[in-house]
From TrEMBL:
<comment type="similarity">
    <text>Belongs to the CoaE family.</text>
</comment>
<dbReference type="InterPro" id="IPR027417">
    <property type="entry name" value="P-loop_NTPase"/>
</dbReference>
<dbReference type="InterPro" id="IPR001977">
    <property type="entry name" value="Depp_CoAkinase"/>
</dbReference>
<keyword id="KW-0418">Kinase</keyword>
<comment type="pathway">
    <text>Cofactor biosynthesis; coenzyme A biosynthesis; CoA from (R)-pantothenate: step 5/5.</text>
</comment>
<comment type="function">
    <text>Catalyzes the phosphorylation of the 3'-hydroxyl group of dephosphocoenzyme A to form coenzyme A.</text>
</comment>
<keyword id="KW-0547">Nucleotide-binding</keyword>
<dbReference type="GO" id="GO:0005524">
    <property type="term" value="F:ATP binding"/>
</dbReference>
<keyword id="KW-0808">Transferase</keyword>
<dbReference type="Pfam" id="PF01121">
    <property type="entry name" value="CoaE"/>
</dbReference>
<dbReference type="GO" id="GO:0005737">
    <property type="term" value="C:cytoplasm"/>
</dbReference>
<protein>
    <recommendedName>
        <fullName>Dephospho-CoA kinase</fullName>
        <ecNumber>2.7.1.24</ecNumber>
    </recommendedName>
</protein>
<keyword id="KW-0067">ATP-binding</keyword>
<dbReference type="GO" id="GO:0015937">
    <property type="term" value="P:coenzyme A biosynthetic process"/>
</dbReference>
<dbReference type="GO" id="GO:0004140">
    <property type="term" value="F:dephospho-CoA kinase activity"/>
</dbReference>
């Protein structure tokens, strides 16, 4: 199985790209969604209905590195095991290529499990403007959120494929065609071995090998 890493900075366009993968039939495991399933947090950030007040929690953790690290430490094991189970379900369904959309792929050192790594890059000014527009947030708050992550320039140096999403959505879709071509190339032997079909072939080969060996051994001992 090919596990494609999809990452970038906040509001750089990861979800927009992950929607393009989905519309082309490639499943995406979204770490933000996985994280939402495991939030048992302090009372004062819970709404009356018991749900997490995400904007309030966001304001707290993005302006306070210690609290953010605490939240990261608390959630990290749940996020990794949640991602693992989602991947296992897709493996059992026989998907050969899947995408892991993980904003903190490098920060959480999950990049070693994915190949190729796609980084959605955007220029800093556009990133700030898009974030403020999408989340209706102040410049200070948006900048805090951007600063809470590894810089996009550093992330792009660690990518196998870079998408520059500074331009229009049309530009993005054009670049996506090349990405699609790259990620849907025939699997390498290692990737095939890790797929459900590869594991089944190995199992069948072992069974056939054992049966042949037993037959030859039995014939010789007669
Ligand atoms: C802080 C929270 C409550 C803000 O919720 P909100 O609904 O406003 O944002 P959402 O979850 O959609 O995340 C938006 C983006 O923020 C960035 N982000 C989220 N968490 C973090 C973090 N701990 N550090 C840096 N950036 C982060 C990512 O780019 C993410 O895509 C939420 O992001 C959260 O619980 N984060 C901790 C879990 C986590 O680390 N998620 C990232 C998975 S790799
Ligand atoms: N090429 C583009 N042109 C104009 N707007 C765009 C473009 N790409 C994305 N956007 C908009 O920018 C915002 C951020 O994009 P998106 O939500 O995909 O980013 P993200 O990386 O998934 O963000 P987050 O890290 O917060 O989850 C959204 O409002 C999206 O509609």
């Amino acid at each position: 199985m090919r596990i494609v890493g999809l990452t970038g900075g906040i509001a750089s366009g990861k979800s927009t790209v992950s929607n393009l993968f989905k519309t082309h039939g490639i499943p995406v495991v979204d770490a933000d969604l996985v994280a939402r399933l495991f939030q048992h947090l302090e009372r004062d950030i819970l709404q009356p209905d018991g749900e997490v007040d995400r904007p309030k929690l966001g304001q707290i953790v993005f302006s306070n590195p210690e609290k953010r690290q605490l939240l990261n430490r608390l959630l990290a094991p749940y996020i990794s095991s949640g991602i693992f189970w989602e991947m296992l379900k897709l493996w059992m369904k026989g998907f050969k290529v899947i995408v892991l959309d993980v904003p903190l792929l490098f920060e959480a050192k999950m990049d070693k499990w994915t190949k190729p790594i796609v980084v959605v890059w955007v220029d800093p000014e556009t990133q700030l403007q898009r974030l403020m527009l999408r989340d209706r947030t102040s410049e200070d708050d948006a900048q805090n959120r951007i600063n809470a992550q590894m810089s996009l320039d550093l992330k792009r140096t660690r990518a196998d494929i870079v998408i520059d999403n500074t331009g229009s959505l049309e530009d993005l879709k054009e670049q996506f065609q090349n990405v699609l071509f790259e990620v849907t190339k025939p699997l390498t032997w290692t990737e095939f071995g890790l797929s459900r079909q590869g594991a089944a072939s190995v199992l069948v080969s072992i069974i056939v090998g054992v049966l042949i060996f037993r037959k030859v051994y039995n014939t010789e001992s007669l």
